Amino acid sequence: MNDKFYTLYEVADLLKMSYMTIFRWAKNGKLPAYKFGKQYRISKETLEEFITKSKVKKEGRKA
User: Cβ(13)–Cβ(44) under 8 Å?
Assistant: First the structure.
């Protein structure tokens, strides 16, 4: 297993967001995470997919 795993604090720091936001997303399943005991971990691959899926699509201009 060569996957890199991040803590919720590391993800919050990478995304420049609040720890509690990342915690809520992990807890309710919006951001898929692994739970080991009381601690959550997010794989690098999962985080990259989450970021890609969260990209805002440019809307076409209305004439």
Answer: no
